[in-house]
Design a protein that fits this description.
Radius of gyration: 18 Å
CATH class: Alpha Beta
Number of helices: 6
Shape: globular
Helix content: 25-40%
CATH superfamily: GHMP Kinase, N-terminal domain
Number of strands: 9
CATH architecture: 2-Layer Sandwich
Largest sheet: 5 strands, mixed
CATH topology: Ribosomal Protein S5, domain 2
Strand order of the largest sheet: 1-2-3-5-4
Strand content: 25-35%
Distance between the termini: 37 Å
Number of domains: 1
Order of helices and strands: EEEHEHHEHEEHEEH
Length: 245
Amino acid sequence: MPETIRADGRAANQIRPLRFQNHIAPHAAGSTLIEWGNTRLICAVTIEESVPRWMKEQKVEGGWITAEYSMLPYSTLTRKPRDISKGRLDGRSSEIQRLIGRSIRAAVDLEKFGARTICVDCDVLQADGGTRTAAITGAFVALSLAVSKLIEEKKLSVSPLKSGIAAVSVGIVQGIPLLDLCYTEDVGAAVDLNLVMNAAGEFIELQGTGEEATFTDTQLVDLLTLGKAGIRELLGLQQAAIARG
């Protein structure tokens, strides 16, 4: 794989600097500020001691996890109006929050949560590419902190977490596979792929497309190899952040 130097000085297989600042939202059960390069999000988990009505009606056991995602007006170069001002959630935000919800639900045993709803809120403070992957990666840290709190309060006897999960972007820019695209790379990518994986090395979701381009089997393998290595690094950084509490 070519070891190219990118605009921000990284090698092709290098993720941007990543930092977690836990307990950023003191009223949440678990929260973290994830700073990933110049992308910054707050991920917070709150808990409701009830489940959606459809679960009661269908007699579904256990709990539920739902997610919301939003980009604050000042998170981008030009002001992004709040969804509430438009009276509806835009298509991109709706798709991303469904992705976050699916990803987090894949990491837990919902029956072990009991009859609770876990609300995961991801708010983008600053966007420089990879906000959906940062939201998923940060959300798992916030969820882990919330689970620890429930166990400390003796509301849970065992952890419902099955496996760590993380997400990262990869892409082909000027013919070169790159890990963890920043905004300018994302805009210029001929191929863009987002991976969500667990600690067992299993895929939870793949979102890939050629941006007015096509890609070969070999290129796909190269991207997956880059992405898997990135996920392993992210899982280690997550566990270090969770261990700090």
